[in-house]
Every structure is written in structure tokens, then in C-alpha cells.
Design brief:
By secondary structure, the protein is mainly alpha-helical. The protein is built from 2 helices and no strands.
Length: 71
Amino acid sequence: VQLFTLSYRMIFVLFEVAQDLITSQTLRFGFKNPKLTFRTLTGMSTSLFMNTFQRLSDMESALKLRSFYEK
């Protein structure tokens, strides 16, 4: 049940980060033409993956410190 809760929470974190990236790229005119859009989406997907991976790593470290994995 706890693992399901954490997974459910990370889905919303992923969507929040994606929305922030889309907003920032829109404000920087990242979707001006097709070539720039492709380059922007490539950078955004890389950034989204790295950011999400870092948050998951931080969450795992916090759970280990709280002895979440010990029975």
C-alpha cells in the first residue's frame, strides 16, 4: 500500500515538473517554429528525465534514513 502511495505521488510530481518546463519554454519562445520545437522538446524530455530521476533518488535516500526498508 505504501509503495502504491509513493508511486501515485510521483506521477503528480512528474506532471508538475513537465508543466513547469512547458511554461518556461513557452515564455522563452521555445515553440516558435518546427525546428526549434523539436530541439525544445528534446531538451525538455532530457531535463524531465534527469529531474525526475534526481527526485526519486532523493526520496529513496530519505526513506533509507527513516529505515523504511527494514522490517
